[in-house]
Amino acid sequence: MNPAALPSVRVRAPGKINLFLGVGGRHDDGYHALATVFQAVSLTEDVVATAAPGFHLTVEGAADTESVPTDDRNLAMRAAKLLASATGYEGGVHLAVHKSVPVAGGMGGGSADAAAALVACDALWGTGLSIARLHELAARLGADVPFALHGGTAVGTGRGDVLTPALARGRLDWVLVPSDEGMSTPAVYGRLDAHRDEEGALADDPPLSLDVPPAVLQALRAGDPHVLADELHNDLQVAALLERPDLQTVIDEGVAAGALRGIVSGSGPTVALLCEGPGIAARVRERLGASGRRALHVHGPVPGARVIG
Ligand code: C5P
To answer: pLDDT tens-digit profile of 249-270?
Structure first.
């Protein structure tokens, strides 16, 4: 049979930026308490699920894909197998992952693949899970996977997986500067813990429950990028900069090129530069490009994982 004739489903899921990321203490399971605001942006992953007897996965795309595993270490593969075991589905799937989100870039690309795989397999296999049930499976796969399902702008607490939609007015324009080499998320969290121990950065032990400051949510509601620029914050940035001090130069160059503010996205190393609007973002991207930086103009918020085509 011609493989093109086999039933297949294409799902698109967004990468994310953490506009605010507060990191608290470490729980016994190794995860840190978080209070974060996610925004889904227009840099997306596509996963095409095609009916197959077993489980297979291929990866392609503009991002550096050689380092991405295609076996059970791949979160999209784990998502498909988790859905099959949760629903008793006995067939398999071929997953073709088309990557645009930087690999190990702090933008949740792997989590987007997992969310897309859940939605794609659910549609392909006709397992018909509710959003609540998909969310539950997503949270078992990783702390950022529920947000990739959800999309938009949302507050994440717990491990980052307990989501509340945030009221955000208007669109935000971002210029992203990816790095050629990714960074390990657990290593960046580990560095933050070590740094806090060394510096005694917090007088008390880091809290095991924390909130997003009201000023961040107000700035989002107001929809004014100037106000929001002052509220952008990432507790992991200090740890990412210890490993990659050059990221500060990227942030400074972005601001010199016209961005309102720059932060490290999640655990890094991608730098996210908030701009006043689309025209300025286009200019910032152009100026960074002219000085030899790879830079992308994206916007948010965009929807979560959804079937397209
Ligand atoms: O859940 P996910 O696989 O995305 O997390 C990757 C790693 O990031 C975890 O293994 C953990 O080391 C770290 N992490 C954390 N606390 C969180 C989320 C992630 O320590 N809330």
So the answer is: 999 999 999 999 999 999 999 9
54 is annotated as contributing to ligand binding: no
Q: Which two tokens stand for residue 221?
A: 């509601």
Q: Is 108 annotated as a binding residue?
A: yes
202-227 average pLDDT score: 90
- 16 is annotated as an active-site residue: yes
Look at residue 47 and tell me whether its pLDDT is greater than 50.
Answer: yes
Å from CA of 186 to ligand 1 middle: 6
Q: Is 4 helix (H, G, I), strand (E, B) or coil?
A: helix
Which pTM does this prediction carry?
0.95
Tens of pLDDT, residue by residue over 191-202, are 999 999 888 755
Minimum CA distance residue for ligand 1 atom 7: 186
Q: Pick the residue whose CA is nearest to atom 9 on ligand 1.
A: 186
In the chain, beta strands by DSSP E: 8-26, 32-52, 55-61, 92-99, 153-157, 162-165, 172-177, 233-234, 261-264, 271-275, 296-300, 306-308
Among protein residues, the one with the nearest Cα to ligand 1's atom 19 is 31
Tokens linked to 229: 């620029």
| Cβ–Cβ < 8 Å for 21, 185 | no
